[in-house]
User: What shape does this take?
Amino acid sequence: MNIKPIRTASDYQLALERLELIFDASIGTAESDEADILGLLIDEYEKKHFPIDAPDPIEAIKIRMEEMQLKQIDLVDAIGGKSRVSEILNRKRKLTVDMIRKLTKKLNLSPELLIVDYQLVR
Assistant: This one.
């Protein structure tokens, strides 16, 4: 096992190629341990060099609705009324603190994700 930090794009490419070769190694082998460590190093490099921004609150809600196979009507108890749900999801009205609290529980989303500011459509 010859593992070193990933500092350059070339190091990153070599790590990816090596991980591809040993990815299916049997658990408990030296190659499996190497794959685990390489995976962690690659993940850290990608977080630093290829960050992915979190979706805005409305996109997060829509993504979770799709994952949970929910329809707008399913959010009435958390947001209040079919028209209010529509206004929120169409960015015509902002989420309130009470809505955020209820949506956090109903959709199992982080409150930090839902309190981020977003633009309304006029």
